[in-house]
Design brief:
alpha+beta; six-stranded mixed β-sheet; 523 residues; globular; 11 helices; Nucleotidyltransferase, domain 5
Length: 523
């Protein structure tokens, strides 16, 4: 049964009931958050996932313990250091669509079946609110540009968890952010919205132009979208871990190569547990005393503010550059800061005050919205989406136009392994701001010094059509099969490309000539 049919069986009165759970679920790379529609306050709220300790998230980690033949999840799976046979699975969302199998007790299990266990576990956690609760509708977040194969496996995981009929839809990060930002507001004019999501695996962001059609519908166009996995929260965690290892080795006299797995694990856990206090003190410009109680003998180290400055400075410089590129690399040309109407900063990274301060220095004239629960913004937006789909709040549909990815392969046809094949110069799903690797071809012109080469577009069904015909005149008159030309394809903008062709010579026998041509092609 689809969720639409299921919805028809529910009256609006039935939905206005504390036992009817309307959820937004964000299974992130590092942490999982769930938001629920509060029927009394008429708003989406995060669920305490920590069992009463006030933490709205749990680590997206699962672990199988062969000794007990049981699964554990969240914080326990993250911090537990059992036998070497324990199987710990991190960042399971990134494995969707890969067809990967994980061996559990001699049996190969696919990713959807393993993820289904995790989904059942987090849904059971929601029952702590009300043991009689029943999920009547949910929206799950998915990364922007999540592959269709990954979505299909994600859908299978929900079905295996028994939630197929209540899964309304998957919602992109961008749409979740926009739903959160505009909840309870009327959009009266076109607005440029800058969003930055500083997560555990990467920092990502974009510029979205929001254009209201009427009270129920919004047309949005993605003007820019970038991501950088080298700047995610895990980068900072790694830097802290390395610093703590240095402290440990200095005090114990051990070399790094002498540390065993238990030592490393204890240091990782200690760095994870100390992170919040470190940045709290850093914001106050105070040093932090660290007590290495797990060491024998125990010892104390003080992390000075200047050491934290040195740790953070390279990251801060890179984040500033990332923000600058968000405004420069737009599909219609550079956007100036004064053209931005709204800024929203989400993700766990913005729980660190130094990142907020950096943002405010970059945009001193704009009030930046920092959601109270920045790490849970996506789950809250997804929950608002679920409530809208079910008619609990006024209908609000967002249609996001996106031109950042190439939807087909671009290439030429040539002889490869004695067969004529399509040879890609730029592959489907390439972002327009990404660089493709150049390719070198060996050509045989016979007695001619000109060549016409069709440039093809190939769709996902394998069908090709001619984009343009490249005419190469006055080519070097090399001996047979010694003409080596480098073909380099890059975007000018999202809807046009530039092909450059350069003579590379033929080793030491024939030096490169000055032959070089460029061609601009409209997509």
């Amino acid at each position: 049964m689809s969720w639409k049919l299921f919805k028809k069986q529910l009256s609006s009165k039935e939905l206005d009931d504390e036992t009817r759970f309307i959820l937004g679920i964000d299974i992130g790379t590092r942490a999982t958050k769930i938001a629920i529609w509060n029927v009394n306050r008429k708003q989406a709220e995060l669920i305490d996932m920590s069992g009463g300790y006030g933490n709205p998230s749990i680590p997206t980690v699962m672990q199988y313990i062969p000794e007990n033949k049981e699964w554990v999840f969240g914080e326990y799976a993250l911090l537990n250091k059992g036998d070497f046979d324990d199987i710990t699975i991190n960042n399971i969302i990134s494995k969707l669509g890969t067809k990967e199998l994980i061996e559990i007790s001699g049996k190969a299990m696919n990713i959807p079946s393993i993820l289904a266990r995790y989904i059942r576990e987090i849904i059971d956690m929601c029952k702590n609110l009300n043991p009689n609760g029943e999920v009547v509708g949910l929206v799950a977040t998915v990364p922007d540009y999540f592959s269709e194969e990954a979505k299909e496996e994600f859908k299978r995981a929900f079905a295996m968890a028994g939630l197929e009929k209540v899964l309304i839809t998957f919602m992109s990060f961008r749409e979740c952010v926009l739903r959160y930002l505009y909840f309870g507001q009327s959009i009266e004019k076109k607005e440029n919205v800058l969003f930055i999501d500083y997560g555990g695996e990467q920092i990502r962001g974009g510029l979205v132009q929001v254009n209201p059609e009427d009270e129920k519908h919004v047309k949005a166009e993605s003007l820019s979208f970038l991501f950088d996995s080298s700047l995610g929260g895990k980068k900072l965690d790694k830097l802290l871990k390395e610093l703590f290892i240095d402290f440990y080795c200095e005090e114990t006299g051990l070399l790094r190569t002498q540390l065993d797995e238990d030592n490393i694990h204890q240091i990782e856990v200690f760095a994870y547990q100390s992170k919040g206090l470190l940045f709290q003190n850093y914001y106050r410009r105070k040093p932090t005393k660290l007590y290495f109680n797990f060491a024998y003998p125990a010892f104390q180290k003080t992390l000075e503010v200047e050491q934290m400055d040195k740790l953070i400075e390279p990251l801060a410089i890179s984040i500033k550059e990332f923000i600058s590129n968000l405004l420069k690399k737009t599909i219609n040309g550079e956007i100036k800061k004064e053209e931005i109407d709204k800024i929203i900063a989400v993700g766990g990274g913005f729980e660190m005050n130094w990142v907020k301060r950096l943002m405010e220095n970059e945009f001193p004239e704009i009030d930046i919205e920092y959601p109270k629960d920045s790490e849970g913004t996506l789950a809250l937006g997804a929950c608002l989406g679920a409530a809208s789909y079910l008619g609990v709040i006024p209908e609000f549909m967002i249609d996001i136009k996106d031109c950042h990815k190439l939807t087909f392969d671009i290439g030429v046809k040539g002889l490869f392994e004695k067969k004529t094949r399509f040879i890609p110069l730029m592959e489907r799903n390439t972002f327009w701001w990404q660089e493709s690797k150049a390719k070198i071809f060996i050509l045989d012109l016979g007695r001619d010094n000109f060549l016409e080469i069709p440039l093809y577009a190939k769709n996902d069904q394998g069908e090709t059509k001619t984009l343009d015909v490249i005419k190469l005149d006055n080519l070097p008159r090399n001996p047979s099969r010694t003409l080596r030309l480098k073909f380099d394809l890059k975007f000018n903008q999202y809807d046009s490309i530039e092909l450059s062709v350069k003579d590379c010579g033929f080793g030491e026998i024939i030096p490169p000539s000055d032959y070089f041509e460029t061609f601009n092609i409209k997509l």
